[in-house]
Design brief:
alpha+beta, Chloramphenicol Acetyltransferase, six-stranded mixed beta sheet, globular
């Protein structure tokens, strides 16, 4: 990821803007853009108060300057060029921070914009930050404390996300995923919080995995299913007539890990995701097939020197059809599945591998003009669609920054969502803040409806809860 660390300007401060070739991930994404399903990442940060507009703009602009790799736009070039290039700029081309006027269903409308309107690549920076507040006089807000379900009036959102509260605000960051990923932009927002609030925002130390005890006595994990076998697809529910993505967000308790467990919360989320889709597919008549779940792995530091760009590498966690077959999911069966999943995720994370694999690096080699490579890439993507993973689970983990905005308060909830274009058609994104799990389900409307999303949420919650009750019995 050397392309993530270039300075924004020439060393002497003069001359033309510096240009940086697209890294592999950016180029593949650029080749495959679709207007119907924009490649956006959304982040929403819920605050108890509302930041001052002028101070927030100043803080965000300063944060952009401190992370100059985010100030970029796609450079123009002839069709026969061999590279897409980012042109780094000294200042934003347009104002990235806005305060939309308070209105009814303000947060719902902001979410819709995040899913349907990607910040343009031709303008620096390819992100936007909206500060959303409730309409004056309206008292809409979270459901009563302790409630963890959506209400019938808002069937597509969780209780802490129905509407921006009248006394608070939501920072809504929309990112063009061709240029940047969620963790990188969260780092920039954390810098803005530190500048705005005047308080140290150093990242907390990451949690450590409990050492696996007694693994030598456990039977070896079954062989992972072959990567040559096309994995299961998410069964079609009740598609909607409009194109694009739908989304549901909900707040849940962070799952409890039984004492001494060798698996992590990420493994619990992975198992809950697999069992959710397996259950959904059985209900919709799909036959048993192996699963593969894409999992982003981010090895970057979270401090101020974090490389900015698309910095995660993708690995695929396999599940055999027999592992997810319909059965009585006793605590023992769940525990065994968690152990196998833990072994696989640990081994995959330890592998040194290019972000999208060796094939993508070869495909983006600057041998042919970029327009020809784009046509080849799109064709290969269509041909490889049956082998695309079943879904994507992106677990951001515990938010490492305080996100303390001074007079506007400290973040009490943070949601992310990842693109959900076909053929996957469904992504699961999680993060935890203040001891709560913030889950976003995002889907392609050509595959699922809001009602389908609500049912998938219920299944996810059920199986996530099941992973908590897996203690070893007495010897």
């Amino acid at each position: 990821m050397t392309a993530l660390d270039h300075p924004a300007h020439q060393a002497d401060g003069g001359g033309p803007p510096l240009r940086v070739p697209f890294p592999v991930v950016d180029e593949v994404s650029r080749h495959c853009l679709q207007e119907e399903e924009p490649e956006t990442v959304h982040i929403e940060v819920h605050l108890p108060g509302t930041p001052d507009p002028d101070r927030l703009r100043a803080a965000f602009h300063e944060a952009l300057r401190r992370h100059p790799r985010i100030l970029m736009r796609e450079a123009k070039g002839p069709w026969y060029r061999r590279r897409y290039e980012w042109e780094l700029t000294a200042e934003p081309d347009t104002e990235p921070v806005s305060f939309p006027p308070p209105e009814r269903d303000a947060l719902k409308r902001a979410r819709e914009r995040a899913l349907s309107q990607a910040p343009p690549l031709a303008s620096s920076p390819p992100i936007r930050l909206e500060v959303v507040t409730a309409e004056p006089g309206r008292a809409e807000g979270p459901a009563p404390e302790g409630t963890e379900r959506s209400t019938s009036e808002h069937p597509t959102t969780g209780p802490a996300a129905d509407e921006a509260p009248a006394t608070g605000s939501v920072l809504f960051l929309t990112i063009n995923h061709t240029a940047l990923d969620g963790p990188a932009c969260l780092r920039v927002l954390a810098t803005a919080a530190e500048i705005y609030g005047g308080k140290d925002n150093s990242p907390a130390a990451p949690p450590t995995r409990t050492p696996d005890q007694g693994t030598q006595e456990q039977p070896p994990a079954p062989e992972a299913p072959s990567g040559w076998s096309p994995p299961a697809r998410v069964a079609k529910g009740s598609p909607e007539p409009s194109p694009g993505n739908g989304m549901l967000v909900v707040e849940l308790p962070v799952p409890r890990r039984p004492k001494g467990s060798p698996f992590t919360v990420n493994d619990q989320l992975m198992v809950a995701t697999a069992l959710m889709i397996a259950h959904w597919n059985r209900e919709h008549g799909a036959g048993p097939r192996p699963f593969r779940i894409t999992m982003p792995v981010d090895d970057r530091p979270r401090d101020a020197g974090m490389p900015i760009g698309n910095g995660t590498r993708l690995v695929e966690v396999p599940f055999g059809a027999e592992e997810l077959a319909d059965r009585d999911w006793t605590p023992e069966a769940i525990r065994d599945l968690l152990r196998r999943t833990s072994d696989r995720t640990r081994a995959l994370k330890a592998l040194a591998r290019p972000q999208l694999g060796h094939g993508a690096a070869l495909l983006t080699a600057p041998v042919l003009p970029v327009a020809l490579r784009a046509a080849v890439t799109r064709g290969l993507r269509r041909a490889a669609a049956p082998w695309t993973s079943t879904t994507l689970l992106s677990n951001i983990g515990r938010i490492p920054y305080a996100l303390d905005f001074g007079d506007a308060g400290r973040a009490h909830a943070v949601w992310f969502s990842a693109p959900a274009r076909m053929p996957r058609g469904l992504t699961v994104t999680t993060a935890s803040t203040a001891g709560r799990l913030h889950l976003a389900l995002r889907w392609s409307r050509t595959l699922l409806s809001h009602g389908d999303g609500a049912h998938l949420r219920d299944l996810f919650e059920h199986y996530l809860h099941a992973t908590e009750h897996t203690e070893e019995g007495p010897k």
